[in-house]
Design goal:
single chain; 219 residues; alpha/beta; Rossmann fold; four-stranded mixed sheet; globular
Length: 219
């Protein structure tokens, strides 16, 4: 079993290798619907190796992609030639332009400095949509393949197992602050001056049971 970490200060090549081997997403909701309703291009933060970006582009969505991991971007450039891709940590990002829609389909905006930087790239009448890990789900023990190692209500440390097609198991370690659904509205305003427009779970789950939940916000 190999262990990888998402560490922007010291990118782990194994982390990029893991994500490059995961199959592309087939369920593009809610990202495709949001992107189709927005003026192009869409700013995608944490674009990775293209598991979601490649099918979004195939569906006609013009993207500007940002990721801090050079290995992720090297793989994605080969898959999406001609797409504008930028290597930067989100908290350091300054593109000097704003977008009608910013999407972040992972739990990386749970950090306040990243949320503020992302919000700075949202146009006056634009939106930001992102995904957060659900503390209720972690507190309940998560699910098979996810091991919660510590949980204190403000943060959690856990491991996620991925079984690859070649038979290997790769484990990702994560340690993150937690944002509770009940606190999202106040947190958005306090941290980044954003207003909550909509918060919802995955279609097949109630909010308290969903492994993650989605936030749509604007100015």
């Amino acid at each position: 079993m190999s262990i990888v970490r998402d560490d922007p200060s010291s990118p782990d090549e194994g982390f990029a290798e893991l994500y490059a081997q995961l199959p592309d997403a087939t369920d593009l909701s809610p990202w495709l619907e949001l992107a189709q309703a927005a003026a192009p291009p869409v700013l995608y933060l944490g674009i990775g190796t293209g598991r979601l970006a490649v099918p979004l582009r195939a569906a006609g969505i013009e993207l500007v992609g940002v990721d801090s991991h050079p290995g992720m971007l090297a793989r994605l450039r080969a898959r999406l030639p001609g797409t504008e891709l930028i290597q930067s940590r989100i908290e350091d990002l300054d593109l000097r332009r704003q977008f009608d829609l910013v999407i972040v389909p992972s739990n990386i905006l749970c950090f306040a400095d990243r949320l503020r930087s992302a919000a700075d790239h949202v146009a006056a009448n634009g939106s930001i949509a992102f995904e957060l890990t659900n503390p209720h789900w972690l507190r309940a023990g998560a699910s098979r393949g996810v091991r919660v190692q510590s949980f204190d209500g403000n943060g959690a440390r856990f491991e996620v197992d991925y079984k690859l097609s070649d038979g290997r198991t790769i484990t990702q370690q994560a340690e993150v602050p937690l944002v509770w659904p009940e606190e999202v509205e106040n947190w958005l305003g306090r941290v980044a001056g954003l207003k909550l427009r909509r918060m919802f779970a995955r279609p097949d789950a109630e909010l308290v049971d969903s492994p993650s939940f989605y936030v749509l916000a604007g100015r």
